[in-house]
Amino acid sequence: MNASPGTSRKQRGTRRLRAVRQSADPQGDVSSRALSAACSVGRTKWFLAVVVSAGLASGAMWGLLSQRGPKVYGFEIVDTYPHDPEAFTQGLVFEDGHLYESTGKYGESSLRRVELETGRVVQSHQLARQLFGEGITIWNDRIYQLTWREGIAIVYDRDTFEERRRFRYRGEGWGLTHDGTHLIMSDGSATLQFRHPETFRVMRRLLVHSQGRRVDQLNELQYIRGEIFANIFYRDYLARICPRTGEVTGWIDLRTLWPHREDREAVLNGIAWDAEANRLFVTGKNWPFLFHIRLTSGRTPGLRAGGSRGPH
Length: 312
Prior knowledge:
The protein has helices spanning 7-10, 32-53, 59-67, and strands spanning 71-82, 89-95, 98-103, 110-115, 121-126, 133-139, 142-147, 152-157, 163-168, 176-178, 183-186, 191-195, 202-207, 209-210, 213-214, 218-224, 227-232, 235-241, 248-253, 268-274, 279-284, 289-297. Strand 20 and strand 21 form a beta hairpin. It is built from 3 helices and 22 strands. The strands form 5 sheets. An 8-stranded mixed sheet has the order 16-17-18-19-1-22-21-20. The protein has a single domain (18-297), classed as Lipocalin (Beta Barrel), CATH 2.40.128. By secondary structure, it is mainly beta.
């Protein structure tokens, strides 16, 4: 759930997203049957795209595949909640009626429990100054928190925020979620790592792609009803990813959700899912609002459920 800012990331550049087809499930819900079908379609598209790139199909075929790309979802604002504008959001989870948030920046990183309705921080743990907080996820009675360049994953007691243990890993830590079996981690590349929750050992890797092209800069993550939702660093889109094939089955266009930002680093970065009430929450780094949104068919201007526009 996250991505760390820094001049080194700015120099990497980002790939333009290809989001075409304008149809979608209005609720954004995916049943296991629908997911299986989406993954099967994803495998077919991936194979065909490889054939095309290998030169075994014509340019006309490539154009046809492009027109049959992933679905594009718009959104509707259901509700708006206050969010600490000083919180450099790197990870977000909703559990037991509260938001759990990881914030970044050296000397300011923290783990927080936040009251949804007011945005009030009801519990907080400050990280050491040399650690840059990144993605978090909750596994049973434990909270896992990544760090950016330090290669340290910290495990806390969910209730007390007391540190239980640490794991070491290579490379950078960006986003973190889980599928009920493995922890799923991003590092800013196009590859997701599935890790064992007891050892943090990498069990498998998943290359994320869309129409035969790698999707780099995968950032903050959330596992929602059999799919992986991922922020794309410096892009106000969420990718919906099939966890078996790595195919992007849909793009969620959130460019109009909160466009009034003076700081380039105040990017969309925070996805939380309320499984009991089927609510999808999103926010960003130093955003003053957290939004409960509902997915809609095609790109929309981000109207409220009643038709009025969201906050400006």
